[in-house]
TrEMBL record, chain A:
SMART domains: AAA. PANTHER family: ABC TRANSPORTER ATP-BINDING PROTEIN ALBC-RELATED. Keywords: ATP-binding, Nucleotide-binding, Transport. It holds the Pfam family ABC_tran. Residues 10-235 form the ABC transporter domain. It comes from Streptomyces hainanensis. GO terms for molecular function: ATP binding; ATP hydrolysis activity. This is ABC transporter ATP-binding protein.
Automatic annotation (TrEMBL), chain B:
It holds the Pfam family ABC2_membrane_2. GO terms for cellular component: plasma membrane. It comes from the Bacteria. This is Transporter. GO terms for molecular function: ABC-type transporter activity. Keywords: Membrane, Transmembrane, Transmembrane helix. The chain crosses the membrane at residues 12-32, 77-101, 127-149, 169-186, 193-211, 292-315.
UniProtKB/TrEMBL annotation, chain C:
The keyword DNA-binding applies. Residues 12-80 form the HTH gntR-type domain. This is GntR family transcriptional regulator. The keyword Membrane does not apply. The lineage of its organism: Bacteria, Bacillati, Actinomycetota, Actinomycetes, Kitasatosporales. Keywords: DNA-binding, Transcription, Transcription regulation. It holds the Pfam family GntR. GO terms for molecular function: DNA binding; DNA-binding transcription factor activity. It comes from Streptomyces hainanensis.
Length: 301, 322, 134
């Protein structure tokens, strides 16, 4: 991995974007260290695309700021050159061949690795002389990825790139992406609502919910900080020893199950009546999303 | 950027060139035949001999028979003028409207605006190149139509008349660039191709008609002409005048008839047949034909100004699209 | 060369699955010292996993003294887990196969066989093999 571990690839500060009177993203503060593969997770409409579009300079913030390697992505073509972007549904000029798209990239970018893109595509058997409109969805996604990688970007942003693909094509797409990361060490921010895709791929998590950042951090650390706790029914789960905050609680007549942030990393509760289990990324994400839902209904009720 | 613009629009450009070639194939033979008839029948010499004075005196309209003959033969062809008026609009519909709208509709703006050039440059280059490519085509078209229409215009209606002014000289070039800018702007506003085309169509027609009917007659104050109903004077058909209003005024200056009257001197019966009293005079409000180029420059200026404004607004709007 | 597979339903961390597969291969002799491990890039591509996960697995193997990274070339195995038992493994395996056929003939289903082996293992060896527990 070539990037300096202390460098920041993407940083936002009180970032906000409004469509009309509704905020699509508000008060977003996060810092993505370079060299990470980060998952941008959240339900549809949570602001994932908005955040990515702000990061690639397609959108202008209505509040706060966004920095890519310390620079405003709306600034100049130099910053644009450092960012690779694969937009949702991997749009391409459908009457262009892959070869022509690669030529296009060469004309529009000062740094452009046409051979890399061409080798990558021929390597996985994608015809480069056929209009891309005639390719399968998976192949088009691969072309879009190859184009983004040919920029040799330091930050690669992908907006639900695999959402519309069948499982095999999705696996191949993620494989191609991971192999490119292994080679270049580029930082990746990948949005998806398919958690299963991300669990093995991402080492950093950004969870968006209703225009806010719910949770952000290193996946291993987040997993180490959270536990599922099971014990006798209690109406004051915050008081359970070892619990710092309760993310989600469910109760039966006799038992209470909590997904909680623990006071110290990896501790087991001191109360012998309670047992602790490790959580998966999916458990964690679902708990936070569910917690926000509950919170919202309480507020509106 | 040049390569991309060419690659994206080459089909339309080829179709446009083919369309113009087909049009030329139609217009060149008919134009030659019109010019030939115009010369060979003696109409050209006859009209030349009349000069460009607004009034002719002491002679009858010697070219009248030849003019009728020419009109009978070629009148149907002048309907083509309507087609000529629509041509600039096509550039707006098929180059302007899809320029941004198709990108947004297909999402490809997110591909092309995230490459290594700013979208401001993308927009300016595209507009510049397409404008630069359509400009010579428009000039060729304008010159061609001016040549084709010259005999018809010379034969009475004049170059300033509606439908004639609009397809000759330099205004067609300005209309073409305006249509391109209007289409582009409409695309940034609607962000979909078909609505953008509809807005372009409506906007082009509204602006053209509005300026033509509301502004153009006021570019310069019209002139008035009064002449005796019995002075043996005639309006020169070769004068190229754009007549707003004409008729017979009585001694008090009231308009009593919309037709003009020419009677021999001292023939009250003739005046009576025409329904006017002695002492009345023929009158017309008109723009002299020699103002053609002044009007052309004014109208071209207006449309180029609108073009610049629309380009500016389009580029500004493009920066809001994500 | 080892070909990694992932068990999607396993609770075991991805990197640990890779480590265990290398150890397993060393134990049964499929892999031997001197063998090169698959390139990080290849593993990341075929399994569609984060290359850092592969690196972490390889580092773990290096820490345990089983592998060694050679800059610019790759990661190579340098030790084995087969021990002295390897020569006898073939014979033992044959006996096990014969036993399994007998179990099959006696009408034991796959689950019955697995349960029988599992309980016998625990009863006989008293505790699980250290490398398989976490």
């Amino acid at each position: 991995m070539t990037e300096d571990a202390h460098e920041t690839a993407l940083e936002t500060d009180a970032l906000g974007k409004r469509y009309g009177r509704a905020w699509a993203l508000r008060g977003c503060a996060l810092r993505l260290p370079a060299g990470r593969i980060a998952a941008l997770v959240g339900p549809n409409g949570a602001g994932k695309s908005t955040l990515l579009h702000l990061a690639v300079g397609l959108l202008r913030p209505d509040a706060g700021q966004v920095r890519v390697f310390g620079r405003d992505p709306r600034g100049d073509s130099e910053t644009l050159a450092d960012i690779g972007f694969v937009a949702q549904d991997t749009p391409l000029y459908r009457d262009f061949t892959a070869d022509e798209l690669i030529t296009m990239g060469a004309r529009l970018n000062r740094r452009w690795d046409a051979d890399l893109a061409r080798d990558r595509l021929t390597g996985i058997g994608i015809p480069t002389r056929k209009p891309v409109g005639g390719l399968s969805g998976g192949q088009r996604a691969q072309v879009a990825l190859a184009l983004a990688l040919a920029k040799r970007p330091r930050l690669l942003l992908l907006d639900e790139p695999a959402a519309a693909l069948d499982p095999l094509a999705r696996h191949e797409f993620m494989g191609a992406l991971m192999s490119a990361v292994a080679e270049s060490g580029t930082t990746v921010l990948l949005s998806s609502h398919l958690l299963a895709d991300l669990e093995r791929v991402c080492d950093y998590l950004i969870l968006l919910q209703t225009a806010h950042v719910q949770l952000a951090g290193d996946v291993d650390e987040l997993l180490a900080q959270h536990r599922t706790l099971t014990g006798p029914r209690t109406d004051r789960p915050e008081a359970v020893p070892g619990v710092r905050s309760v993310i989600r609680a469910s109760h039966t007549d006799r038992q209470t199950t909590l997904l909680a942030r623990t006071t110290t990393t990896g501790t087991v509760p001191t109360d012998p009546a309670w047992s602790a289990h490790e959580v998966s990324l999916e458990d964690l994400v679902l708990a936070y999303l569910g917690a926000a839902d509950t919170h919202r209904t309480e507020v509106t009720a | 950027m040049i390569w991309l613009t060419w690659r994206q629009h080459r089909k339309q450009l080829v179709y446009l060139a083919l369309g113009l070639a087909a049009l030329a194939a139609l217009m060149v033979p008919t134009g030659l035949s019109m010019h030939d008839t115009f010369q060979d029948s003696g109409l050209a010499d006859c009209l030349d001999a009349l000069g460009t004075d607004v009034l002719l005196s002491g002679q009858v309209d010697t070219c009248d028979a030849l003019r009728r003959q020419f009109t009978d033969e070629f009148n149907s062809l002048t309907m083509v003028a309507i087609l000529f008026m629509v041509l600039p609009l096509l550039v707006g519909l098929f180059f302007g409207a899809p320029l941004v709208a198709r990108e947004v509709e297909h999402g490809t703006h997110r591909l092309v605006w995230t490459q290594g050039i700013t979208r401001r440059r993308w927009a300016l280059t595209k507009l510049g190149l397409l404008g630069g490519l359509t400009l010579p085509l428009a000039v060729v078209y304008a010159l061609g139509v001016t040549w084709w229409f010259a005999p018809v215009a010379a034969n009475g209606t004049g170059r300033l008349a509606y439908g004639f002014f609009d397809v000759q000289g330099i205004v067609p070039v300005a209309y073409t660039l305006f249509a391109l800018a209007l289409g582009t702007f409409a695309g940034t506003a609607t962000r979909r191709v078909l609505p953008a085309m509809a807005v372009t169509l409506g906007g082009f027609a509204a602006v053209r008609l509005g300026i033509e009917t509301l502004l153009r007659p006021h570019y310069m104050p019209p002139e008035e002409l009064s002449y005796s109903t019995t002075g043996g004077q005639w309006l020169n058909p070769a004068a190229d005048s754009w007549i707003y209003e004409s008729g017979v005024r009585n001694a008090d200056g009231e308009l009593v008839s919309s037709g003009l009257i020419g009677c021999p001197p001292h023939d009250p019966l003739c005046l009576d047949r025409g329904g006017v009293e002695p002492g009345s005079s023929n009158w017309q409000l008109y723009q002299p034909g020699d103002r053609f180029w002044t009007f052309q420059f004014i109208e071209t200026g207006i449309f180029l100004g609108l073009t610049a404004l629309l380009c500016y607004l389009a580029v500004r709007r493009i920066r809001q699209i994500a | 060369m080892i070909e990694f597979v992932l068990d999607g339903r396993s609770k075991v961390a991805t990197y640990m699955q890779l480590v265990l597969q290398v150890k397993q291969a060393l134990r049964v002799g499929i892999a031997q010292p001197g063998d090169q491990l698959p390139k990080v890039r290849e593993v990341a591509r075929t399994l569609a996993i984060n290359p850092n996960t592969v690196l972490k697995a390889y580092r773990q193997l290096e820490l345990e003294g089983l592998a060694e990274g050679r800059p610019g070339v790759g990661t190579f195995l340098v030790a084995t887990l087969a021990g002295d038992s390897l020569p006898q493994q073939a014979e033992l395996r044959e006996e096990l196969v014969a036993w399994l056929r007998r179990a099959q003939a006696a009408g034991l289903a796959r689950e019955d066989v697995a349960a029988l082996i599992d309980t016998t293992l625990r009863a006989t060896l008293d505790r699980p093999v250290p490398d398989d527990a976490h």
